[in-house]
Amino acid sequence: MSASLFDPIKLGAIEAPNRIIMAPLTRGRAGPGFVPNELALEYYRQRASAGLIISEATGISQEGLGWPSAPGLWTDAQVEGWKPVTDAVHAAGGRIVAQLWHMGRLVHSVFNDGKQPVSASATKGVAARIRRSPPRPRGSAPAAAR
Ligand SMILES: Cc1cc2nc3c(=O)[nH]c(=O)nc-3n(C[C@H](O)[C@H](O)[C@H](O)COP(=O)(O)O)c2cc1C
Fold it and tell me: SS3 for 71?
């Protein structure tokens, strides 16, 4: 007999009571310092009945985050901002994991003190322009040190 969406599933260490996995969705609602806030708490708490929530893409460093008001996970304030969010999901009976994000060559230098970001390989990004930012010069991002 085939499983239904409402059957439990084990995903590594996670015992999910159903197979509904919430896809990561960038919201752009974090506060100053890329710190998640009450909006994230309410958003994820409301969705705790999913078998597993995958968080919105979450920056791992200033240099790797190039999205306005996306949350991060590299400062103490960001970690403290996430704790009430994950606590609220757990209190509502849910499970949540973080999607870690480094945007590589696509990070706009405006997020990075004017410096070009590093990338996995020294390849050229698209000529990107983000809202409220100056155009970024075309060029290769330097490859990250290995
Ligand atoms: C507004 C929006 C934000 C998204 N943010 C992320 C994200 O943070 N991380 C990610 O891996 N995918 C992100 N995605 C992709 C979705 O998770 C999903 O894979 C995509 O929408 C394809 O699913 P669909 O065919 O059901 O729409 C985003 C999609 C949308 C529409």
Answer: coil
